[in-house]
Design goal:
17% strand; six-stranded parallel beta sheet; 22 helices; globular; alpha/beta
Amino acid sequence: MAKIVLTSINARYVHSNPAVLYLKKAVEDIPRDVVVREFSINESPEKIILQLKEEKADVIAISVYIWNSILVRKLLPELKRNNSSLKIILGGPEVSYNALLWLDEHPEIDYIITGGGEAAFRELALSGFSSEEKIIRCTNLPFSEIVFPYDDNEMKRLDGRFIYYESSRGCPFRCSYCLSSRSDQSLDFRDLEQVRSELDFFRVYRPKLVKFVDRTFNSKREHYRGIWDYILNNFRGSDTRFHFEIYPDLLDFDDLRFLATVPEGLFQLEMGIQSLKGETLAAINRGCRKEGWLDKVKTIADMGNIHVHVDLIAGLPYESYPDFMNSFDTVHNTGADHFQCGFLKVLPGTEMREKSGEFGLEYSPLPPYQIESSRWISRSEIGKLERIADLLEIYYNSGRFRETEKYLTGFYSSPFEFYESLSEYSACRGSLDLREWDGAAELLLGFAAEKWSAKGELLTDYLRWDWCISMKMHHFPKILKSDATVNAKRQGYNYVSGFSDNGVIKFRGFEFGMDELRRSIFFRPESGEFSGFMDGMDFAMFLPDKRVICFAIE
């Protein structure tokens, strides 16, 4: 019996790839030994090659995306070495629209499947992987007739990873930078009752995250509200979070009222804003914004029960550096939990790639084909935005410096100006490891010392507060430690422990044990200006479960 190995190389270990699971289900009635092997791009090519060769496969099929494209190219000749009978099949968006180029550059490839792969892969399997055509394309069945890709064995294998699920394929929009904008892509919904049944299947396994990969989840009201209502009624109190990519303009006030009732931690929403400039939106076929759409984003962010992720794309047509600055400030001020400053990818097969000459787009010839300059933005300006995007990840999106960031941005006329100034300062401090909390804090302390030397003590208080609220430690790092922090721990511990009764502490409406007290961290501001979070109290105690108790020693 021929052996098929369906291979996925994901961006991170916690990610998974439903595409290979769909392919497995598409041929489950054909007498074949089908195995799924998933790797991550952090694994060495040598390790992946060795493990795939150990499978002794007759056929290896690989899903190719912009994040694994270069790695896949390294694998192809080695997989075929000393095994000329092995059939190699590629599929996925990275090879679907430049298949001839891949075949020309890599004679090791036997077949490339373009577009939706289930029907094409099944046809190839029925032929015994012996087709005269090297480029295989078939019209897929309606999405509701395509078999659900998950089963008990796969859910056990994927324990601890993100589960990707789609209730629709295609997109109602025609954004020129996206492959879903192509005329050969259509919007197709899975039957709503079918979706409910499949969600019930997930409920048994309680995955941490089910990520709907629908390009615009809220494009059809009866569909998305039917799913939201079902999740709310059946997953309330569960450990599973559901992720949806939505377009905020399409939300109505009834949607907002509904979202306000969602329990904290059940939903997370990603909203692709991309740009605020009308001329840019028209050029990318995004359409004009409806009045009040930004208020909807702010309203959801202010609710506090839903994790909100917002996106901008730098390098789009007609958007200059000052234009992007304005978009950045507006989006930053929504108060979203995560603000991604991304960069245009000029993908093969898109209208944006076809118009790259008209727009003067210069971009990397290698995946992910990122923009380098255009008629409206220079190479050096893109470089500045890349540094700002890196700092945004550290000081905003990590959640580890939120109050410090708010404090420092207050010295500038806009958030962008703060990040621009900090990026210029950080460019001269390359020795610091900003991935580590201490290095990132040291950069801010040095930055503040150069700009506002009198504010160092207050900034240190903000950093200590952020450390307490975001880090799971019961002591301060060396950069924040002082005699005052040691005394605060001693005084706070001695005072609170006096409320113990047989090892149980009841204090200011909270109840906890002595072990929790020992693992708590205490904060007492050293500056006279810090008072914003403590309700006029002198001390704050952060329990291991992140409950915060503010109190004064009487």
